[in-house]
Protein: TonB C-terminal domain-containing protein
Organism: Corallococcus terminator
Amino acid sequence: MDEVLRDASPRKGSWDVAALLADASADKPPVELEPAQAPGVFAEAVQLLKGTPSQEEVQRALGDLSAACEAGLQASCSFLHESLSRPKLISGGRFVSPHPRALVERGMFALLIFRCRFDTDGRVRDCKVIEGGPVDGTQRALDELYASLYRPPTLAGHPLSIPYTFHLRFTPPKGELTREEELAWARQRVSQHPKSASAWMTLAQWLAVQSPQDRLYPQAVARAHSLSPGSWWAATEVAWQQVQSGEYAAALITVRPSMRREWANSYVLETAAAAYFGLGQCLEALKVQERAVELMLKAWPQPEQERFQRKAQEYRTACPPEALTTSTPPAE
């Protein structure tokens, strides 16, 4: 029997607001704001969303909120994270593997990736195949996607027409790939689909886990960041590599957008702190690292928590005593 993916709702782990915003603005000229402009633009967007805006106005508000977030206004970043709701499957979404049943029963895995658009009526439209399988099976999955009905994504309760990328992974009954097989599959995917952001991101993440010394790792991370600039993970990994190479200014430029959007992410903050320290900005490094320590999850392994704390102590020891008495905020 073919494996059925019963629920095609976006999974919680895949709801990356920053990546979604980057995807949504890919075909539009970016809105750029100076930090001083951000509060006013943010206030206007929030006020607009309190009324009954048109879809054009909702889209404009989304762009303005994203620009204010990029300008370093944490209130705007928080509003986006709290007010953007994910789509939810209402009916349909029953997919079968694109491969013949005989291959599925023998353990054939499959992954289909479609870049589509959610419309405000909850329908999926304008799909493009990013990674496909056999033609007939891929078309069958695409037809099912078009026939499915979702509660559309919303911004402050207002339906959005927004791009979204679907990842449909099919596993045979009782089938599970080992880590080594996952890595081998990721290598195969980038070979077959060299323009797939998902393929490069998956390869980079598996290499990070299994083989960070692999010569392909820097290239995989760079490609993932290039194809998915909204991903905080890829940006942070590229910036960390730049720190290790002594390219501190470049690292800060790379990680700064993620630092603004993901201001509560300890790994982003750790990378930014290392860049500040490399630039000789000791106090800024200490403040950012201390915030990273403060925001660490209690569930983190003890060695990881201790590593963050040791780094904060290292910065504290390196800072001149007089610097520790100042209150200069971290540079933006």
Q: What stands out?
A: The first strand starts at residue 4 and ends at 5. Confidence is low (pLDDT under 50) at residues 1-14, 327-332. The first helix runs from residue 17 to 24.
